[in-house]
Amino acid sequence: MTSIDAERFREALLDERRRVEHALATLRDEHRGSLDEEVEEIGASDNHLAETATATLGREIDYTLGENSGQVLAAIESALRRIDEGTYGTCISCGEQIRYERLEATPWASLCIDCKRKAEGG
What's the pTM? Predict the structure, then answer.
């Protein structure tokens, strides 16, 4: 098994954290007002039902993206703690080494692929 270059992964995690934080800030900046305020502005137009539905769908998508980004940020923070503790790259469920390729694809992974599949019910 190849030893893991924890510092290289630390840098990748820090880069990803900056990217996700920027994406979240952009989402917040794009939606400073409430959905009700946005719908009120649309209500003055002739196509207000379709535009209201579009605005609502767009806001729901953005909320979902924000929620997912929050989960990724939490996973990144956890991975950074595991690097500090010296346990990075070890599955938190079974204690086996997480494959390097998995960490390359998802540096915040805390489970080996087998445990991840079990956790997802597959």
Answer: 0.72
Asked whether 80 and 48 are in contact (CB, 8 A), the reply is no
Query: Residue 22: phi, psi to the nearest 5?
Result: -65, -45
Residues 6+ apart with CB under 8 A from 90: 82, 96, 97, 98
Say if residues 115 and 93 touch (Cβ distance below 8 Å). Answer: yes
Do 110 and 88 form a contact (C-beta atoms < 8 A)? no
Summarize pLDDT for 39-81 with one digit per residue, the tens.
Answer: 455 455 555 566 666 656 665 666 677 788 889 999 999 999 9
| 91 close to 109: Cβ distance less than 8 angstroms | no
Distance, in Å, from the CA atom of 35 to the CA atom of 58, rounded to the nearest integer, reads 10
Residue carrying the six token digits 């990075």: 88
Backbone angles phi, psi at 95, to 5 degrees: 80, 0
Residue in this structure with the two tokens 């692929």, named with its chain if needed: 113
